[in-house]
Amino acid sequence: MNKRRLSALSVVILLLAALLPVGVFAASEWAPHVNYQQGDQVTYQGNVYSCLQSHTSLPGWEPPNVPALWKLVSSGSDDTTAPSVPTSLKVTSKSASSVSLSWTASTDNVGVVAYEVYNGANLAGISNQTQYTVTGLSANTSYTFTVKAKDAAGNRSGASNSVTVTTDPANDGGGAPAGDKLLIGYWHNFDNGSTTLKLGEVSSKYDVIQVAFAEPSGQAPGHMQFTPYNATPEQFKADIARLKQMGKKVLISIGGANGHIQLHDATAKQNFINSMKNIIQTYGFNGIDIDLEGSSLAVGAGDTDFKHPTTPIIVNMIDAIKSICDSFGSDFMLTMAPETAYVQGGYLSYGGPWGAYLPVIHALRDKLTFIHVQHYNSGSMVGLDGKSYTQGTADFQVAMAEMLLQGFPVGNNPNNVFPGLREDQVAIGLPASPSAASGGYTTPDNIDKALKYLVKGQAYGGAYKLVKTGGYPGFRGVMTWSINWDAASGHAFSNPVRNTLDSLK
GH18 domain location, by residue (predicted)? Predict the structure, then answer.
C-alpha cells in the first residue's frame, strides 16, 4: 500500500470514527502480540490511541512509534470529563466464595478504560469488561458491591447502584467452578508438535485449565520451577487473571512424563512446599494438580496398608500437598491425574507402581476437588465384575469410573477396601485426538454413550453393567490431554463433549 492510499484511508477512518459514539466500550492498555483491528482503541502512557490498520502488534510498535498504525485521540492531561455512571449492576451467579456481577457500560468523551468493583468501601477488583467475578469471599456472608468507571486520564464516575448478596453456605466442592459437569483440559507449556497456543487463546468451552507442567529445577532436592514457554511472566499472569474473571479455574500441574519428582526426606519435602507455594502465589493459580508418572510414586517393600503408608516418597508427598492446600484455604483446588495402573491397577495387585496413588488419594480425599484418571496409554484393565475391558471403548470408561465411585478391595483383599469417592470427585481423562496418546482414543459417540450411562443410567447395550443402575447424577465431567491437541484437530473433541456435558445438567 503506497503512502497516498494510506493517507486517504486514514482520513476516511477518522471521519467514520467522528460519527460514532465514543466511550461505549472499554479500551485496554496496549500490549505486544495482540491482534488489533481497525477502529480499536487502546491506552498507552495515559493517552488514548485509535487503530488505523488491522495488525498484530510487536515490541517496538508502541502507538507513539508508529503513526501509520495508531492515531492519538486524546492526551490524558487534556481530559477532565468523568465517564457516566455505570447502571443496572446485578448479580449473575454466586457460590460459597465468589460473586459474579454484570452492569451496563458507561460512556465517556474519549473512552472508558476500566471499571473498578468495590466491596463496600474497598476495591475488590478491576475489569476492562462489563462483568467481573469477585473471589476469595467467605461462605454464608453478606456483601454489598458497587462499580465505578474510569477513563485514561484517571477521571472516575460516581458509584453505580449497589447490590447486596449473601454467598452460598460452605460446601465440599473445593474451589471448583459453578456448574454440574466440567470440561477440564491440559494446556502445554511447551511445543510438542500439536499446536502452539497462548493461554489466553484457550477455548471458552473449558471450565478448568491444567497448566502442564511445573518441573524439578535441579537446584536442590524437591525444588520446583515454572517459566511460561511462550509469554512473559507479566503476560502469563494477565492471561490467568482474565480467565479467572471469566469464571475459569487455572491450576498448575506437577509431573508429567518427564517430571520425575521424589521427596525422599524432610529437606526435599520443604523445598517442594516452598517452591510450589511461590509458583502458585506468583502467578495466581487456583490450585495444584498431581500428575506423577513413572517411578515418582511407588509402594515400597513391606508397605501393604494403603491407609497407613510407610514408603517415604509417598508419606512426604502427602504431607507436602496437605501443607500447600492448608496454606491457601478452602477455595484452593486439588486435582489428580494418575494413570490407571496407579489406581485401578491396585485392585488385583498392590505394590511398586500398582495402586501407588491409592494412599495419596485416600489421605487427601477430604481436600480432593476431583480426580481424572488417565483412561489412555493403559491397555486393558479389569473392572469390578472381574472382566477385562479394552481402552478406547464406552465400557472401559464406565467400568474404570465406577471403580472409584464404588470402591474396591486393594490387592484383591476383602479386608483392605479402598472406599469410594463422592460423585462430584470423579471425572474421566481422555485423549483429545488419536495423535494425543499412543492408545485409548475414544470417539465422541462412545464418550456420549459412556457419560449418559454413568450419569443417567441410560444403557447402550454394552458388556459392563453398572452396580448402581440408576447412574451417578453428581459425576463431575471429562478431562482431556490436551487443549492443544484439541485445537490442532479443530476442536473435534471439546465441541461434541461440551454438548454432551451440557445435556446432562
Answer: 181-504
